[in-house]
Amino acid sequence: MNMSLFYKIINIAAGIAWIVLILFRNDPYITGVIIGWIVPTVLAATYSFFIYRSFASKEKGTMLTFEGVKTLFRNPNVMMAGWIHYLAFDLFIGAWELRDSQQHGINFLFIFPCLLLTIAFGPIGFLAYILLRSFTA
Fold first, then answer.
1. From the CB of residue 40, how many other CB atoms can be counted at a distance below 10 Å?
2. Which residues, other chains included, contact 32 with Cβ-Cβ below 8 Å and sequence gap of 6+?
3. What local confidence, expressed as pLDDT, does residue 45 receive?
4. 1, 80, 108, 126: which one has the fewest Cβ atoms less than 10 Å from its Cβ?
5. What is the DSSP letter of 8?
6. Beta carbons of 125 and 115 less than 8 angstroms apart
7. Angstrom distance (rounded) from CA 97 to CA 45
């Protein structure tokens, strides 16, 4: 498997999902079911595939120490799984932020920067949204 090509494909797919989330933000089926559940589930299954492939590696690491994690991420399958982990969870959280903001009547212009931060920096976007929500809802 060409990991560089797969990396590009998975990033394009996640990018399209984010665009669909933003453009169709008022469609509860798209934001709740497709982007909020189906796409992250497909990413989770892909993650599982790469974790499974990593078991065949001769390099064994551990999540218990920093050095062990460095060893784990030398394995291209673990590295790809780690990246997919970020893509899946960031998208899931972004879809939740959007739905939650709609339930609390927060204007999309305020949520949009939080979504951009979630796309780029995951937890920082989530934190920004939580702070925004605490001041607006």
1. 22
2. 95, 99
3. 96
4. 1
5. H
6. yes
7. 23
Cα(67)–Cα(131) distance, rounded to whole angstroms? Answer: 34
Q: Which amino acid is at 47?
A: Y
32 touches 95 (CB < 8 A): yes
| Residue 57 backbone phi and psi in degrees, to 5 | -70, 145
CB proximity list for 111: less than 8 A, separation 6 or greater: 97, 98, 101, 129, 132
The reported pLDDT for the residue numbered 58 is 72
Cβ contact 118:101 at 8 Å: no
Residue 53, C-beta contacts closer than 8 angstroms, at least 6 positions apart: 77
* pLDDT of res. 16: 96
Confidence of residue 55 (pLDDT cuts 50, 70, 90): confident
Report in angstroms the alpha-carbon separations of 123 from 27, 49, 60: 25, 25, 28
Rounded Cα–Cα distance for residues 95 and 105 (Å): 15
